[in-house]
Amino acid sequence: MSSDFESYEQDFAVLTAEITGRIGKVPKLVGDEKKQMVANVEKQLEEARELLEQMELEVREIPAQSRGMYSSRMRSYKQEMGKLEADFKRSRIAYSDEVRNELLGDDGNSSENQRAHLLDNTERLERSSRRLEAGYQIAVETEQIGQEMLENLSHDREKIQRARERV
């Protein structure tokens, strides 16, 4: 039983070392290479989780007097796995920030460009607001003219009806 556990331990050690190396490479890669590396790390993390499950099953089969030592090893392996997953999450966040910056065309270090872009957008917004106000004024004037025309037509109708009655 313990020999199976030890072989799982060795596999886990090799796998975690590979994962650690690949996580370190993720932020340095670009494009499809980066996507491929992220997919590989996710696959290896899943393999490591499966190895931990196998190790837990082996620990359950170990006699009670020896189980304590193996249980403490399992706790440390689970902590290591949690640390790997957290590191991978951080590297993916950095990866997503880089993708966002790439899509937005932002260097991340050009505050002057950001300021100019912000001022340009503010100016556009003010122009649009002025156009909307002018459009609103035209709509109000058109409504007033329409109302006056309806009143004139109403008066003309009354005049025409009175003229008919006289005739």
TrEMBL record:
<dbReference type="GO" id="GO:0006896">
    <property type="term" value="P:Golgi to vacuole transport"/>
</dbReference>
<dbReference type="GO" id="GO:0006886">
    <property type="term" value="P:intracellular protein transport"/>
</dbReference>
<dbReference type="Pfam" id="PF05008">
    <property type="entry name" value="V-SNARE"/>
</dbReference>
<dbReference type="GO" id="GO:0048280">
    <property type="term" value="P:vesicle fusion with Golgi apparatus"/>
</dbReference>
<comment type="subunit">
    <text>Interacts with distinct SNARE complexes that contain either STX5 or STX6. Interacts with NAPA and, to a lesser extent, with NAPG. Identified in a complex containing STX6, STX12, VAMP4 and VTI1A.</text>
</comment>
<dbReference type="GO" id="GO:0000149">
    <property type="term" value="F:SNARE binding"/>
</dbReference>
<dbReference type="GO" id="GO:0016236">
    <property type="term" value="P:macroautophagy"/>
</dbReference>
<dbReference type="InterPro" id="IPR038407">
    <property type="entry name" value="v-SNARE_N_sf"/>
</dbReference>
<dbReference type="GO" id="GO:0000139">
    <property type="term" value="C:Golgi membrane"/>
</dbReference>
<dbReference type="GO" id="GO:0012507">
    <property type="term" value="C:ER to Golgi transport vesicle membrane"/>
</dbReference>
<dbReference type="GO" id="GO:0005789">
    <property type="term" value="C:endoplasmic reticulum membrane"/>
</dbReference>
<dbReference type="InterPro" id="IPR007705">
    <property type="entry name" value="Vesicle_trsprt_v-SNARE_N"/>
</dbReference>
<keyword id="KW-0472">Membrane</keyword>
<keyword id="KW-1133">Transmembrane helix</keyword>
<protein>
    <recommendedName>
        <fullName>Vesicle transport through interaction with t-SNAREs homolog 1A</fullName>
    </recommendedName>
</protein>
<keyword id="KW-0175">Coiled coil</keyword>
<dbReference type="GO" id="GO:0005484">
    <property type="term" value="F:SNAP receptor activity"/>
</dbReference>
<dbReference type="GO" id="GO:0005829">
    <property type="term" value="C:cytosol"/>
</dbReference>
<keyword id="KW-0653">Protein transport</keyword>
<dbReference type="InterPro" id="IPR010989">
    <property type="entry name" value="SNARE"/>
</dbReference>
<keyword id="KW-0812">Transmembrane</keyword>
<feature type="domain" description="Vesicle transport v-SNARE N-terminal">
    <location>
        <begin position="1"/>
        <end position="91"/>
    </location>
</feature>
<dbReference type="GO" id="GO:0031201">
    <property type="term" value="C:SNARE complex"/>
</dbReference>
<feature type="coiled-coil region">
    <location>
        <begin position="31"/>
        <end position="65"/>
    </location>
</feature>
<dbReference type="Pfam" id="PF12352">
    <property type="entry name" value="V-SNARE_C"/>
</dbReference>
<comment type="similarity">
    <text>Belongs to the VTI1 family.</text>
</comment>
<keyword id="KW-0813">Transport</keyword>
<dbReference type="GO" id="GO:0006891">
    <property type="term" value="P:intra-Golgi vesicle-mediated transport"/>
</dbReference>
<keyword id="KW-0333">Golgi apparatus</keyword>
<dbReference type="GO" id="GO:0031902">
    <property type="term" value="C:late endosome membrane"/>
</dbReference>
<dbReference type="GO" id="GO:0042147">
    <property type="term" value="P:retrograde transport, endosome to Golgi"/>
</dbReference>
